[in-house]
Amino acid sequence: MEIAIVLGLLVLAILLFSMEKFSVDLVTMGLLFVLIATKIITPQEAFAGFGSDFMVVLTSIFIISGALQQTGVLDLIGARLLSLAKARPEYMIVYIMFAVGLTSAFMNNTTVTAIFLAPVIAVARNLKMGPSKLLIPVAYASILGGTCTLIGTSTNIAVGGYLEKIGMQPIGMFEFLPVGLALFVTGLLYMALVGKRSLPDNKDESMEAEFGLRAYVSEIVISQDSPLIGKGIFQSSLSKMGFRILNVIRLGHNFLPDKTSIIEANDILIVEGKLENLIAVKETEGIDIRADGLLDYSLQSENIKLAEVLVTPQSEFLNNTLKSSNFRQKYGLVVLAINRSGHTLREKLGKVILRVGDILLVQGPIEKIDYYKLSRDIAILDDFRPLLYKRRKGILTLAVFITSIILGSCNIFPLSASMILGVLVVVLIKAVSIERAYETIDWKLLVMIGGMSAFGTAMTNSGAATWLSQNIVNVMQPFGTLAIMAGFVILTVFLTQPMSNAAAALVVLPIAIETARHLEVNPRTFAIAVMLSASVSLVTPFEPSCILVYGPGKYRFIDFFKAGGILTVILMAVLMILIPYYWPL
Description:
Blueprint: H1 2-19, H2 24-37, H3 43-47, H4 53-70, H5 73-87, H6 92-104, H7 109-126, H8 132-145, H9 154-165, H10 177-193, E1 215-222, H11 237-240, E2 244-250, E3 253-255, E4 268-274, H12 275-281, E5 287-289, E6 304-311, H13 327-331, E7 334-339, E8 359-365, H14 366-371, E9 378-380, H15 391-409, H16 415-428, H17 434-440, H18 443-462, H19 464-476, H20 481-495, H21 501-519, H22 523-533, H23 544-550, H24 557-582
Antiparallel strand pairs: 1-4, 1-5, 2-3, 2-4, 6-8, 6-9, 7-8
Helix pairs in contact: 1-2, 1-18, 2-18, 4-9, 4-15, 4-16, 4-17, 5-6, 5-7, 6-7, 6-8, 6-10, 7-8, 7-23, 8-10, 8-23, 9-18, 9-21, 10-24, 15-16, 18-21, 19-21, 20-21, 20-22, 21-22, 22-24
């Protein structure tokens, strides 16, 4: 009975993670409640992961990464990319992937992708090319760069913590560096020589304007004295201005307009149009943009600015509306319009449920927009202006980070202790304030990893891991041990599409280890295979790094399959060759 419950919860978790109707932390806590209520795991086992040292390591990396960003160190890399673009544009993919991969080896890959978005888009505009030629390589480099070190991705840290919890030897900081480097270099060479030909060249129309000419959805209000009153909606000047009128809200009721629909006073029209047309609306008598009250009559002035911002995977606004999340109150910015690739939005702006990759056109004070360049909730896309480089604090923060890694790698101190020391130092030197330090932490990810670690314990306690491993061995044993390991690699890669990489790895890991024990082979080999294959998530835009570039690159779903399909097969082959070599069965 317990096996059926655990496997049922596993299927449910995969469905809920893929549907994204509920936050991952809520789904995880719901799973833990059921597991505790059915007595499959004890409360102590359920919450043991939240107090483990690998959670401390992950939290510390978020904070130190935030300090590096706030001191301007990471922006220096972006500025260097801009200068290299002018000197050797033919090698831009190599330069960009190398810079992103090197950074991602020591930072969360989603954070790295968000950091590099603005400078890479600036590089593309400088070269008069579409960002789509560079943004998929950015996502792939951030994913593959994270396979080089223990702290490169949250997946590696989570797997390392799980192995230590079940009594296996802890994973070393650079234990799998040779394999990770092979994966990264293979990905870089493939994209630079072959993959770049499959990348679409979606021209960035904003090259020729200060702000993009994307199709935005916004609200236009018809005033009492508007000359449009009494005119047919599709015969009005709005249609002639290039707007698509998607919906009409009248006296609290909304309806789809047709050729007989007439404009009335106080109508709110949900329209889709380009930014230049939205600005033109401000100069048209009797109509206005509704955005919960503009901060200034003109859309831009000396102190007021427009900006395009991207909703990130770490955002607290995900699955919430602008109204329910108090976006304006929290940020002091007004959302004028929303762009979502591949979707036409027909709701009022305040009722649109925000998704990862949504691009918001916002208006606000220049200092507010500059300040939120450091936010983990949104990424500023409209331009790239490096933050003021705090040279002394930046160098000290970088030195502290490197020292923490060395202390942990050489076992002078436990890695968790050395990272805590690093956090303490960067806060004391005021490279990051204590308030900002807490803001940099991805709490949802921590809850998900801590909870899914407990799910692995439930797989073992219930006997589900043993039952699945026995069936796998019975079916696959005639094909040999390597074939069984290949099956786990393929399974993990498959599960990383609807689930987060860490969740997929923690689900497969107990089964893989139990299978290795049944086969009487080295369980560490199977564990490393599962961990690294969780980072070969390149064929769909569901991985957070890929989601981040999806909208700005104007990609289609098929673009990721074209760019990453063959590469994924090659990388799995690399894993199957190198892992048994470094960790003999």
